[in-house]
Amino acid sequence: MELMINGEKQEVEANTLLDVVSHFNLESHLVVTEVDGQIIDRDQWDQTTVKPEMKIELVHFVGGG
């Protein structure tokens, strides 16, 4: 399915927001998600169905010094 992820169209095999996060091999405890302008709580990822052309923002925090 084609989704708009972080401003770029991407083809992703996903049914839920959790599938999208998993597709990118991101550590879920370090990710904040936004779908069509709304922040989605981590406990709702597996219940949030994705649809073609959805606008998803994935923000992944990294440590450093």
Short description:
The protein has 65 residues and is mainly beta. The chain contains 1 helix and 5 strands.
Structure write-up:
With 65 residues, this protein is mainly beta. Helices cover 11% and strands 34% of the residues. The protein has 1 helix and 5 strands; from the N terminus they run ββαβββ. It has a 5-stranded mixed beta sheet, with no helix packed on it. A hairpin with a 2-residue loop joins strand 1 and strand 2. It is globular and about 40 Å long. The mean pLDDT is 93. This is Sulfur carrier protein ThiS. It comes from Alkalihalophilus sp. As8PL. InterPro entries: Beta-grasp_dom_sf, Mopterin_synth/thiamin_S_b, Thi_S, ThiS/MoaD-like.
Distance from first to last alpha carbon: 38 Å
Largest sheet strand order: 2-1-5-3-4
Structural class by SSE content: mainly beta
Series of secondary-structure elements, N-terminal to C-terminal: EEHEEE
Major pleated sheet: 5 strands, mixed
Q: Helix segment count? A: 1
Radius of gyration: 11 Å
Question: Mean pLDDT, nearest integer?
Answer: 93
Helix content: 10-25%
Q: Unreliable stretches, pLDDT < 50, 5 or more residues?
A: none
* Strand-residue proportion: 25-35%
Q: Identify the overall geometry.
A: globular
**What is the number of E strands?**
5
Pfam families: ThiS
Protein name: Sulfur carrier protein ThiS
Q: Which structural traits does this protein have?
A:
1 helix; five-stranded mixed β-sheet; Sulfur carrier protein ThiS; Thi_S; Mopterin_synth/thiamin_S_b; Beta-grasp_dom_sf; 65 residues
